[in-house]
Design a protein that fits this description.
It is built from 20 helices and no strands. By secondary structure, the chain is mainly α. The chain crosses the membrane at residues 6-24, 75-93, 126-151, 163-184, 191-208, 228-251, 278-298, 318-346, 367-389, 395-418, 425-444, 456-475.
Amino acid sequence: MSLGVLISLAAYFILMLGIGVYAYKNATGNSEEYILGGRNLPPAVAALSAGASDMSGWLLLGLPGALYASGLVEAWIGIGLFIGALVNWIVVAPRLREQTERYDNSLTIPAFLANRFPSQGGTLRMVSAVIIVVFFAVYTASGLVAGGKLFQSAFDGSYQVGIWLTLGVVLAYTVVGGFLAVSLTDFCQGLIMMLALIIMPAIVLYAGEGGGFGQARETLSGIEGFTLGWWTSDMTFIGFISLLAWGLGYFGQPHIIVRFMAVKSVAAVSTARNIGMAWMGIALIGAIGVGIFGRAYVERNGVSIEDSETIFIYLAENLFPGLVTGFLLAALLAAIMSTVSSQLLVSSSSLAEDFYKLVLNKNASETTLVTVGRIAVVAVGIVAALIAGDPESQVLGLVSNAWAGFGAAFGPLMILSLTWPRMNGAGAVAGLVVGAVTVGVWIFTPLKAATGLYEMIPGFALSWLAIYAVSLATADQGEFRSAQASPAE
């Protein structure tokens, strides 16, 4: 490893730890500060924190790897995600910011659901907390897999050591600084990721002799199984819909929508949305460029890459000087750590607020809850590291499963709880359970292989139907009248 790489990575780690110390001194005095940063995030911080915690190592490993292997047709995932994120900012963000504060200052998604539907409050908190912890353990594992691959590919080190080093750094600033540390580090990491995704595609496209768009098209057009078109002859309608359906997942991702709860005001949401969507557009275009132009560069130079998800790492090491390589690898670490830290914090918040306080110690003090939250961060992180232990794990595969689980379980639930007053607690429980179970059944039975349908689609549809049908079939417990009496959105 060159001195330049070491300097860049050392500077990155010092920055992250410094932010953790700053946040510890300024926003960890009580549960609201540790879990939501005191609901005082500036729009830019909220926007980039949501984006960085969303994209993860998937943005720099999974998506470029899929495009590298198959071609531009995989970009439909990114298009679906962009549309879903935009609708999420418009429909969910302002309503969730207002209603979570109005309903007894809810600090977590399970707490909001319990306060919104008091007839099933205990059940909703317990069931949603279990779903959050289980799926986040898998989701967090995908980030640690990315960290292991980075350490193995870039530094010729041990995959297992890479997992534990990644987790160790994330735990250091998350345990210490809580939500404010996670959000501020996300902001910095989002800027680093965006710069990397502007620099790399531009350099790779023109690297070496005969570069440029014309050369890239000529090189790629001769690769069997690779397409530069938006549609392939063997692509079915179900396959197309399954790619776009990734966008449905946004409405139910706790680590993303919790940023909506923390922005400093409802009025600031529109500013945050504009910043966040601009960032996301640049990042997705850059990731697509890395995959497509990276494949052209590799083919032109006769290089063989065993794992397509390491194309970003290969290009960073072979096309840039030490300091820039270190910066690009820091961008990859930023993508990984921003999501892992957010997921660990949301998981620990649910364990502390929705399990420990609800079941074990109803009179827990603020200091005790913050301590329990910190312990839970470490515990969930260790479980995720054990799940990530298989070096053959694929980042995109783990992300797709967890993304579908959250999207189906919480997506319809969040949309309808915020927009449909007639929804009741029984419907909420039904939607939560049906969505999660459907995704599990689709993954672990032959249904997915037989239909080719992404598990998000049946899970989301059946969850929505369950909420609607059960809410209308059961008597409301005053929740309908309470929602009607609430201020207009």
